[in-house]
Amino acid sequence: MKNILVTGGAGYIGSHVVVKLHEHGYNPIIMDDFSNSRHSVLEGIKNITGKSFKVYEGDILDQKLLKEVFSSQKIDGVIHFAAKKAVGESVDKPLYYYKNNVSGLVSILEVVQEYKVKNLIFSSSCTVYGQPDSLPVTEETPKKPANSPYGNTKQIGEEILEDTINSGIDLKAIALRYFNPIGAHPSAEIGELPLGVPNNLVPFITQTAAGLRESLTVFGGDYNTQDGTCIRDYIHVMDLADAHVRSIEYLETEYDLNFDVINVGTGSGNTVLEVIKAFEETSKEKLNFKIGPRRPGDVEKIYAQVDKSKRLLKWQTQYSLEQAMSDSWKWQQKLANNSSTDSVS
């Protein structure tokens, strides 16, 4: 059984990838500093899989710990999530983001090179495209100057990977540029668990519906879209998790590959109001929301072309927007039933 190290494996996307890796016959190993996740996630993973996986608690900048991880067991591949990801916070704390996201990747690559690990998946983002001139965005769509230090760390991360591999290191890597992950595991054992005020739309919707937030503000109602609100490509986290496992499988069989980038999305976009409507229809809850001013730095509309992921990974999305909203609501209700305060401050 192959060992796959998942950095940030207790996070939102990472935890779902751990479950999917197990389903596909891999042995996931989790590394997380729990600065943006909870230990309770590990219990949720165990409830789904029936297994407790090895967990290393610590920072990816800790080279001593990293070497302990890689020397204590053979690591066959790495899926690298561990990074800070709040756009607004990155504007306020750019050095914090560059240290964690850029230096963290360098730290991982140094150990990967030392221990001759050959396969790596990098968690990238559609933020590398900025506001594209045409839609849908393909992998060849020109990257524009990032709107935030967070976005810039993803652009720099891809460049570091490409430069490192071009130097002749025996490593194959894929940067998955994904769009807007939503939803939760259908069991409601794991899901998005933001600490403090959510940065993402869907947890704000579910927390508002649950009475934990007074109302939801939609940022901007005058964009050039069908209802005036921003358009995003919302992908169910279970589909996204599956794409990571398919990517690892692809790296293991594609011997000529060095470095590649692949969009991971649904191939279509939804407005914010369409997401709200989908939530109301699936949950039967009426949401208290209002239209506010535009938020600086927000892209008007973006969604992916997904031909490449279908062709190379033999992958495409299976879950609908409505299923994602239903799973998100089930997850929020589970948190409420557990009297959890993890998701609110």
TrEMBL record:
Cofactor dependence: NAD(+)
Reactions it catalyzes: UDP-alpha-D-glucose = UDP-alpha-D-galactose
GO MF, one annotated term: UDP-glucose 4-epimerase activity
EC number: 5.1.3.2
Domain of life: Bacteria
Single Gene Ontology BP annotation: galactose metabolic process
The protein's enzyme class: isomerase
Domain NAD(P)-binding, residue spans: 5-326
CDD domains membership: UDP_G4E_1_SDR_e (cd05247)
Known pathway: Carbohydrate metabolism; galactose metabolism
The keyword Cell division is annotated on this UniProt entry: no
Region (Disordered), start-end ranges: 133-153
Family annotation (InterPro entries): NAD(P)-bd_dom, NAD(P)-bd_dom_sf, UDP_G4E
Family (UniProt): Belongs to the NAD(P)-dependent epimerase/dehydratase family.
Subunit field text: Homodimer.
Name assigned to this protein: UDP-glucose 4-epimerase
Organism this protein belongs to: Roseivirga misakiensis
